[in-house]
Amino acid sequence: GAGSFDVCAISDVIEHTRDPLAFLQAIHRLLKPGGVLFIATPTLDSWSARLLRPTRMEFKPEHLFYFDNATIQHALHLANFRQAIVEPGWKILNLDYITHHFLRFPVPVVTPVVKAITDLIPAPLRHRNIPIVASGMMAFARAAEIPKRSALSVIVAAYNEAATFRELMDALLAKTLPDLDIEIIVVESGSSDGTREIVLGYKDHPRVKVVLEDRPRGKGHAVRTGFQHATGDYILIQDADLEYDLEDYDVLLEPLVQGREAFVLGSRHGGAAWKMRHFVDQPLMSAALNVGHWFFTTLVNITFQLHLKDPFTMYKVFRRDCLEGLVFEYNRFDFDYELLVKLVRKGYMPIEIPVNYRSRSFAEGKKVSVFRDPITWIIAIARLRFTAIDPLAEIAQQQKP
Fold first, then answer.
1. pLDDT tens per residue across span 250-286
2. What are the start-end ranges of the H helices in 82-214?
3. CB half-sphere exposure, 150, CA atoms < 13 A
4. pLDDT of 126 over the 60 cut
5. Which residues contact 265 (CB under 8 A, 6 or more apart)?
6. pTM for this structure?
7. Alpha-carbon distance 197 to 176, whole Å?
8. Which residue has the higher pLDDT, 25 or 111?
9. How far apart are CA 237 and CA 249, in angstroms?
10. Three-state secondary structure call for residue 202
11. Within the chain, what is the greatest distance between any pair of CA atoms?
12. With contact defined as beta carbons under 8 Å apart, do 334 and 223 qualify?
């Protein structure tokens, strides 16, 4: 009956169903709240799919649907599963089994090469079992309660923003979205200009959570703290200044609410590097910052094989469960790099949507250090290039008594 089961495991099944979403919704009804779903299915992200293309064994008439990391997670989200984790589908195989597979399902060039290699290898080595990722993926998720109405968590890191904070908050509290409730999480970091006193004026508002840090540790630390207090289905990061336009919330959130995307970037000026910053009274500084933006965008794209125009935009919007199993450690503006890279590594490739942007100058309160921060960015890029993530292992570690 409904709500009767703790676990459901479906191995090589979902690709055969005529309506995968209805199938997942039926499983959701059978699971208890918090019940675990395990899915094993072929993935279009696998090396075998890219290498073998139409000759891949999994491309056959009885497979009605094909998934990749992103689409399986979209389907799970639409069926009200949360805490989704997708891992490569490991199998224990030996060379004899692999050769038999290619003889049964011949692939031009590949089959004779594999057969020739197998004939040259001694039998004990051909029979030795080895772990290998071939063509599948494993997805894990928990059944969540179906919400009456979804919510957006807006995280505002506030430090020495007395000049703009009240105007921003009043605009945020006046903002409405047709499909979402809005909770505002303000993380104040020990300002010296009166910002904390202004923030405390909102602490009793029913839609505002105020979190006070004992000292400033950087924007990244404040945003990470905000993540811990977020309860909405979606997260949007909002600076406490007025550089970005709140009217862009609607267009940024629409792909997430409709279930088409999990991660969206608000691309400033359409990602045009030379328009990113324009200071009327400091044209040389504007040019220098725009050159820096172009340089670091190119560096990130090359290092992580991306094709983004504005990876460092503050407007990063994503499903909250995208954070499941991720651990963050960067505290300053290098957190922008860490958040982007770890979400991408987990399988959430962002789309970019143009947004309005008016860059404030250093005289108006811009906090980026021209000399210090680029060094931290280079270090972050280098470290992240060789940092692996294992969300499933991290969740298991967190659940240890």
1. 999 999 998 889 999 999 876 554 455 555 455 666 6
2. 95-104, 110-120, 123-126, 165-174, 195-200
3. 20
4. yes
5. 308, 310, 311, 313, 315, 316, 317, 350, 351, 352, 353
6. 0.82
7. 26
8. 25
9. 11
10. coil
11. 78
12. no
